[in-house]
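INFO  loader      accepted 1 record
INFO  loader      residues=268
INFO  predictor   begin
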Amino acid sequence: MKIAVFGAGAIGGYLASKLHQAGENVSIVARGDHLAAIRSKGLTVKSAGQTFNAAIRATNQAAELGVQARLFVATKVWTSGKQSGIRQMEDSMKKLRVERLDLIQVHNLVDVSTHLATLRDWKASGRIRYLGVTHYHAGAHADLEKVIARGDVDFVQVNYSLVEPETERRLLRVAADTRTAVIVNRPFAEGAIFRRTKTQPVPEWAKDIGCASWAQFSLKWILAEPAVTCVIPGTRNPAHAADNMGAATGPLPDPATRAKMTAHFASL
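INFO  predictor   done
INFO  writer      dumping C-alpha cells
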C-alpha cells in the first residue's frame, strides 16, 4: 500500500516511521530543514529508550509521489466574502491536485457564517468530507462554542495548554457533547511553557509515563484529555520534532497523574 504523510512534525514523523516499520510503502511530504535532514540522514526516531532510523522517501512536491492508497488532506479558508472564499478553496484544491478534500476549516472565524454555508453545501455534494472552525486565543472560545453547539461542525481547532487551559471551562465539554473532533494548536503557548520551565528539571515521577522533556510533559498532558483528538505542535527544528514525537509513545497519564502534572506546573 502506498501511503503519503504530509508534514514531518511530531505526529507525522512518528506515524511515517511506524508505517515504515510495518512494511508499508510510505513517503513524506516535507519542507525546509526537516526535508533536508530526512534526505541526508533518514528519519530518526527516539522512542522508549531506543533509537531507529528509517530510509524514507521525502519530497516537497507531492505530485512526484503519484496516486496514494490513502490520504487525509486538510486546509483552511481565511478571507471575506462568499466568492472570495470559493476562489481561495478551489485554488487550494488545484494546488493540492485533488478534487475532494477531507477537511476545510474556517480559519480564525473570518466570515464564518458565509463560509460554513458554502462548506455545508460542498459536504452535501461530496466535495469535502468534513468541515471545521479554528481560533487561537481564549477571547474567541465563546464564539467557537456557539458555532459547534449546533452539532453539524466536524472539527474545532483551538489553543489549549498548561499555560492556556481556558478551553476546559466549557468548550471541551461542548465539543464532547456534540461529538466534534478537537485539534489543539499552540500546545506550548508560543514558548511560554519553556520560558517557565527552563531552569527546572522534569520531575522524576513524570518519567514513569515516558516524559523525558517538558515538551513531552506538555503534549502528554494535552493528549490525555478525553475530548482531544490530536495536537499540532509547529516547529521548523528537526531536533524539536524528534523530541515532540516522544509524546506519542508510552502511556498517557491517568486522571490522577494528570492532576498531579497540573499542580506541579502551577507551582513553578
